[in-house]
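Build the 3D complex.
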Amino acid sequence: MRIGVITYPGTLDDRDAQRAIRLAGGTPVPLWHADEDLKKVDAVVLPGGFSYGDYLRCGAIAAKAPATKEVIKLAAQGLPVLGICNGFQVLVESHLLPGGLIRNEHQHFICRDQKLRVENTDTAWTSLFEKGQEITIPLKNGEGGYIASPETLKMLEAENRVVFRYLDLNPNGSMNDIAGLTNERGNVVGLMPHPEHAVEPGFGPDTDIAMRSGTDGLKFFQSVLKVLVNS
Amino acid sequence: MPKIIVEIMPKQDLLDPQGKAVANALHRSGHPEIVNARIGKRIELHFEREITAADMANAEKLASSFLSNDVIEDVVSITKE
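Done.
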């Protein structure tokens, strides 16, 4: 299965995402923001970083890139799309997911291992988790505070579209402790924390068993591969 | 050069960290009378010809769809200069 990873000018975590896909058993396909051709990939990851230097608003200019326009078109047809951190911001600015992301409540850039609860296992990217499962993956952002109108929040909760919630502490002031969301169909998922940084023992978050042994992020990529194989 | 000026501010009830930092610095430098500061954006759209009514209508559309995000910001003015 071929999973595309889009690189925008200013993207940082594209190679980490490619590595995560490889470790999960997929074939990563590097995609360039200026290309309209998504090379017939089976899924797409919008990785983290600072696309276009966060100019205008985080993700706003990337949302207008030729490759993103193609993602918007194919997402409507069911293409699995995962937006991580800046990729989540791109999904929000592309209106593939509702709401907005603003500067962290305490105005600090945060970099920590973050505990999350998986609230929805019906999405393309969370099918291998158990509902309510607690996972730990790194979080690193400056503008990760999720906001939305009261009506949108109500709709998201009623339709079970909050996929991940921050546990123990809310690091950035996100409304309803929202760390990640999905669209109505469940093929598009966006989250602020970084699953691609928790895929290989020795390089992930600390666990009770051993330092840096956390690989909870791998399941995101294994989930989509399983969904693709079964479809 | 004819310009359309679009001014955008963060929504009133949202934290504006830049404005807050500037207000704190103003207080430290002896201006307690300035109770708050807020920072927004001024975007100039330049033209090499006269600006038409259609250009203004277009700028309005762009201001609300791309230049600002209505979840977090308000377009406060669109003017011709």
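Chain A is about 20% helix and 25% strand.
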